[in-house]
Amino acid sequence: MNRWWLAAALLAVVEPVNAADLLLERIMLSSGGVGYFEYEAVVDGNATLSLDVPFDQVDDILKSLVVYDDGGTAGEITLPGREPLTQSFVDLPFDRAALDSAPALLNALQGAEVRVTGAKPMSGRLLRVVEETARGADGLVIPRDRVTLLTDSGIEQFILEDADSIAFVDPELQKNVAAALSRLASHRSDGRRRLTLESRGTGSRSIRVGYVVGVPLWKASYRLSLPGDPKADRARLQGWAILENFSGQAWHDVSLTLLSGNPVTFRQSLFESYYVARPNVPVEVAGRVLPKPDTGSIEGELGARDAATPSPTRLQKATGMARSAAEAAPAAPPPASAPAQIEAAQAAESVTQTVFTLPYKVSVAAGQSLVLPILDRELPAQRIDLYQSSADQHHPLAAIALTNEGETGLPPGVLTLYEQTTAGDATYLGDARLAAFPPSERRMLSYAVDGKVTVDRTSEEQHAIVKAAIAQGVMRLTRLTRQITTYRVKTADPGEQSSADRAPASRRLEPDRSRSDACRAQR
User: 95, 121, 129, 224: which has the highest count of C-beta atoms within 10 A?
Assistant: First the structure.
């Protein structure tokens, strides 16, 4: 029995319940600008599955498509090819450039018989179209095209722009021009491809099909809520993910995983058709023999040409996305003034990236953006003043020294700071930038200028000659350069001591390890 007939009959049986349709079930979005899309279908026996994909994703799909079938074998995958545009014109008497303009088409079809209607009707065979210029009544230069025909009366000319119409007498040539225009339109508007997958097996089973394509990278943003007590040593950090569905299809109840890392990704034009250039060998024709005159020496000519063969490109495939997750212990209910609890994602740390798996299914229409909560943590936080002369020469920056005591890293993003007041309101403090934040590391997040503290920074250099040596008529001097930077701190609070008499535990300036000209002080 014909296999194709069997596949069609099987699809006809399961069509009412869509049992063999590939449905989008799982999505992984990477901060590297790619996404993994996984489809699933339940089949019974041999099956033919189809999947419609956008045309601009075909290259990535051919590079990364993988089929999972525990109870069967994956067969061939077919899809309509895309003939190169240049190959679409090999059976036509003109090339693609001939359709750039009417003069180009007429020049490409020299010798064709045409019929011209207008103020000067005529019929004849095309000789040439030449561009020329003329001057109008107001002196403006007007470009126009002069067409020359060979008619029964001889050589005649007319201006192309003055003609009402030009038709080819040969109906086959007229059809060729129409076919070329149709192929151009089809090549430009063909926006999707249907992949057909063959699966061979017995019994009812689940088949999964996945691939990696380019998508907009997802972004992280954070909210840091500080308690009203300035001496409190912890703050609440909430993280949100911003993503867009530009995949060309709606997402209905899909399992979503967000990957934060920097994977190696690339594209390769696998859907293009490539033709190898071959040398043109002349046809050997036996002709007249014309011996050369004897010049007293033997002359010979040897020529060889090697066809350049492009070296094959090695295709790298990197797979493996771990889905291990560590569930955090539930936090105690926050006070009424604190941000609402969120259903955080399950976070896990792999070798090269952090994995956030959403605990619920996600639905979003095509072309829509989505903001999802991904984490809610209480982290050690200390209020400090961070002085950086490159940012402000006279005032330090109010900052938060935040420690990531979680088991996983945090992706980079912007961070908005709020302070909870005793009245139950929240006060906006400022914004900060959070770089990639591995676990057990400490970051200083500057969010505002502390105008109540003034820093006077002075530097001086001392130069001294510490060693001089003379050898072989050459004197060598060794100089010691010492740079001394002095910081004088003044606060607007009259109750505080001056910087010279301040106790070490009050507001002590310390060198910042990240910058030689920066200091930080505990607030």
Answer: 224
The answer as to whether 306 is a domain residue is no
Looking at residue 438, its amino acid is: P
Residue 27 belongs to domain spanning: 3-82+190-214
The domain that holds 57 is classified in CATH as 2.60.40
The CB density around residue 258, as the number of other CB atoms within 10 Å, is: 24
Count Cα neighbours of 261 within 13 Å in the Cβ-side half-sphere. 23
Residue 471 lies in a domain: yes
DSSP 8-state secondary structure symbol assigned to residue 137: T
pLDDT for 316 = 36
In the chain the first and final C-alpha atoms are separated, in Å, by 84
DSSP string across 233-253: -EEEEEEEEEEE--SSS-EEE
CA distance 177 to 119: 25
Specify the length of the chain in residues.
523
**How many domains would you assign to the chain?**
4
What pLDDT digit, counting tens, does each position of 381-411 carry? 999 998 888 888 889 999 999 999 989 999 9
Q: In what order do the strands lie in the sheet with 346-349?
A: 66-69, 204-214, 34-44, 23-30, 251-261, 353-364, 346-349
CB 274 within 8 A of CB 336: no
* Residues with pLDDT less than 70, the chain: 1-20, 82-88, 186-190, 286-337, 493-523
Give a three-class secondary structure readout of 142-206.
EEEEEEEEEECCEEEEEEHHHEEEEEECCHHHHHHHHHHHHHHHHHHHCCEEEEEEEEEECCEEE
**Residues 328, 254: Cα–Cα separation, whole Å:** 23
Q: Give me the pLDDT at residue 245, please.
A: 93
If asked whether residues 371 and 233 sit together in one domain, one would say: yes
Q: Write out the two tokens for 131.
A: 């561009």
Closest CA to 113 of 163, 169, 50, 167: 169
